[in-house]
Amino acid sequence: MLSTYGTPLEQQELEILRLAKEANSSWFDIMVKAAGVQAERRKKYSGDGDPYTNFLIVAGLFRMKYPEIKDEDIFFFYQCIKFARLMVDSGDFTDESREDTLIDMGTYSFLEAGFRCRNTTSNAQEPDIQTTFPWHNAFPAP
Length: 142
Description:
Blueprint: H1 11-23, H2 25-46, H3 53-65, H4 73-88, H5 98-118, H6 135-138
């Protein structure tokens, strides 16, 4: 079995996956589904190059109007789109199920975490970084 980067999965990684499936098989099944969606969409939206190409392009476009936007801010934008969809979803969408939307939200979170880990210039290295979905500021108080 090969990992994302074409190297064989290590025995320790396979053991972690086995334990995760044993701990919560429903969660594991969704994670496997999310991994499949991610692999498919990477080719669709980023080709064979950098998996973050489309996010970097969107960040560049946003910076034309909002120069303070950082590359990693774009993941929050995509997460918000999915969250908004959940808020208005009446359950009758045939193009994307509620489960698909939730998987996408999780995938954007994992993509952001991966992006922040690989980019040492990212503000993610700062100890006081705000976490994604700062709910305490997202909605006005009643």
